[in-house]
């Protein structure tokens, strides 16, 4: 029996960006889009081109996605204007992407009060906007804003909005619970009515979490007939958030009621990346992961000692609703080296590090990672540091140089113009492998970390040619423990301005400068390793 296809539409980069305190950069959007593409979602909504500089730049030079369709968000054209004479609509149409999703008013009250136009004018604007997208050769979608409230207020008009979009050529007509106030039991009869004018194969669902029902409402909508599900990674979004795809996706794949009937672009193999994807987003947002999040939280498969613990040792399936490995998580009670070895092996294989499953080095790497995580390290978003760690333990990374000492000074003074300025200066003493004398370098910057970075990269002797095009492009700090002896974790993003390659490294220390310097050292060593920089082996006097 063939399964029916469900389509996953991720709006983390657009709806998620409306979360209080979240402001994605272009490069952060690119990175998250790549993570979602690897996960297997069908659509990645990148943002609203023309509404802000970040989204406009993203769609001027869109990320290359292998499976997901990059989608631009916008509004239907304004009533009284042609599609060619609406600058906002044309900015969306100019986006380099294969799909466009427009928001339209589905509640007659909003048409009258917010838009100040007639119901018929609103329908005409929707039809003309969809037709323009279809004529451009792209996939058209309509988000029917406040659809469920509109249906309760004037069912005939809400249905007319959906039907108009569909008949104009919209691939997806998305029913939006915009204020998150609709309850699960209401979905079945409302969606059943909608399917009389739009087939379920063209219906989508977009729910908000204001009553803590966004996931339940989305699943209920699937049961009622919709075949596209919209949501965000980790459920981020304005107010209380959007439907959490991190919970919806594994439920669709692992719970028999859905898994026996439907399939998605997320395969079982890709589902094992879910926890990793969730943690990467949290690292980019510079926030602690929700320990109690379903499926992906650190405590999702944790059990304290006692009768349950002893039972889990004998038969874990009776106490866990799904296998933790299926979503890339792990059982915290057992913390088995065998299960941990599988995760380490998968990470090493992804990085192209050939290791036999039975090699004892896997256990050594696992133990080292656990020890470092206990000290505050996190390698979820610092794959370059993890690769360095693993390859060093395999004896594949030579010592290119060593830092004998460094010093940082920060001075606040009046400059020659009489302005009060703060100046940072760093001095680094580096011994280059095979060189006779150490190298002293001085760097100035707009802060101690910037000064250290400049000093370190100022002169690395014969290795200098490998790092001339390396720049520090992002820097995040997280305080892991409180008090005067707080442990600090620093995440550094580096860029090769010639190749465009980016990599992330991590450092941990009670001293923020020391943690930053560790991450900087990893960044440079990673570049030298990737370039296979040659090292002089003094003992035998030959280059390796």
UniProtKB/TrEMBL annotation:
Keyword Amino-acid biosynthesis included in the entry's annotation: yes
Every Pyruvate carboxyltransferase domain range: 6-272
Pfam families, per the entry: HCS_D2, HMGL-like, LeuA_dimer
GO process annotations (BP): isoleucine biosynthetic process; L-leucine biosynthetic process
InterPro entries: 2-isopropylmalate_synth_dimer, AIPM/Hcit_synth_CS, Aldolase_TIM, Citramal_synthase, LeuA/HCS_post-cat, LeuA_allosteric_dom_sf, PYR_CT
GO molecular function: (R)-citramalate synthase activity; 2-isopropylmalate synthase activity
Superkingdom as given in the UniProt entry: Bacteria
Protein's pathway: Amino-acid biosynthesis; L-isoleucine biosynthesis; 2-oxobutanoate from pyruvate: step 1/3
Record carries keyword Disulfide bond: no
Sorted UniProt keywords: Acyltransferase, Amino-acid biosynthesis, Branched-chain amino acid biosynthesis, Isoleucine biosynthesis, Transferase
The EC number(s) this enzyme carries: 2.3.3.21
Annotated PROSITE patterns: AIPM_HOMOCIT_SYNTH_1, PYR_CT
Catalysed reaction, written as an equation: pyruvate + acetyl-CoA + H2O = (3R)-citramalate + CoA + H(+)
Sequence intervals crossing the membrane: none
SMART domains cross-referenced by the UniProt entry: LeuA_dimer
Similarity field: Belongs to the alpha-IPM synthase/homocitrate synthase family.
NCBIfam families recorded: citramal_synth
Record's protein name: Citramalate synthase
Species annotation: Hyphomicrobium sulfonivorans
């Amino acid at each position: 029996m063939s399964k029916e296809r469900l389509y996953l539409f991720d709006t983390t980069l657009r709806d998620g960006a409306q979360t209080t305190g979240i402001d994605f950069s272009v490069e952060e959007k690119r990175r998250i889009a790549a993570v979602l593409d690897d996960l297997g979602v069908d659509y990645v909504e990148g943002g609203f081109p023309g509404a802000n500089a970040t989204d406009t730049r993203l769609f001027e030079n869109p990320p290359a996605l292998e499976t997901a369709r990059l989608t631009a968000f916008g509004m239907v054209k304004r009533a009284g204007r042609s599609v060619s004479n609406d600058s906002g609509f044309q900015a969306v149409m100019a986006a380099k992407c294969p799909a466009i999703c427009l928001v339209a008013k589905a509640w007659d009250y909003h048409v009258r009060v917010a838009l100040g136009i007639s119901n018929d004018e609103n329908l005409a604007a929707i039809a003309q906007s969809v037709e323009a997208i279809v004529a451009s050769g792209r996939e058209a979608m309509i988000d029917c804003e406040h659809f469920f409230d509109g249906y309760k207020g004037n069912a005939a008009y809400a249905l007319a909005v959906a039907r108009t979009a569909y008949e104009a050529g919209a691939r997806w007509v998305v029913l939006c619970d915009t204020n998150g106030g609709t309850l699960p039991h209401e979905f079945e009869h409302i969606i059943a009515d909608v399917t009389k004018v739009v087939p379920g194969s063209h219906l989508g669902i977009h729910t908000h979490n204001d009553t803590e029902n966004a996931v339940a409402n989305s699943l209920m909508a699937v049961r009622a007939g919709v075949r596209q599900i919209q949501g965000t990674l980790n459920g981020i979004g304005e107010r209380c958030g959007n439907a959490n795809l991190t919970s919806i996706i594994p439920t669709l794949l692992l719970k028999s009621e859905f898994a026996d009937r439907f399939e998605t672009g997320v395969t079982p193999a890709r589902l094992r990346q879910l926890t990793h994807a969730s943690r990467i987003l949290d690292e980019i947002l510079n926030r602690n992961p929700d320990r109690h999040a379903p499926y992906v939280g650190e405590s999702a498969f944790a059990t304290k000692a006692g009768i349950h613990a002893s039972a889990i040792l004998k038969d874990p399936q009776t106490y866990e609703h799904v296998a933790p490995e299926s979503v890339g998580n792990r059982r915290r009670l057992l913390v088995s080296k065998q299960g941990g070895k599988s995760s380490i092996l998968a990470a090493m294989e992804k990085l192209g590090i050939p290791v036999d499953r039975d090699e004892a080095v896997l256990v050594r790497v696992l133990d080292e990672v656990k020890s470092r995580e206990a000290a505050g390290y996190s390698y979820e978003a610092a794959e370059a540091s993890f690769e360095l760690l693993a390859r060093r333990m395999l004896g594949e990374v030579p010592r290119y140089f060593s830092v004998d000492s460094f010093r940082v000074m920060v001075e606040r003074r009046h400059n020659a113009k009489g302005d009060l300025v703060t100046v940072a200066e760093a001095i680094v003493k580096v011994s280059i492998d095979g060189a006779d004398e150490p190298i002293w370098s001085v760097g100035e910057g707009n802060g101690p970390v910037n000064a250290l970075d400049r000093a370190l990269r100022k002169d690395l002797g014969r290795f200098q040619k490998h790092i001339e095009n390396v720049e520090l492009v992002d820097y995040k700090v997280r305080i892991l423990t409180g008090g005067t002896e707080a442990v600090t974790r620093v995440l550094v993003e580096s860029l090769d301005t010639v190749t465009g390659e980016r990599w992330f490294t991590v450092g941990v220390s009670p001293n923020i400068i020391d943690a930053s310097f560790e991450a900087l050292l990893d960044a440079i060593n990673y570049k030298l390793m990737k370039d296979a920089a040659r090292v002089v082996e003094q003992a035998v006097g030959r280059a390796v």
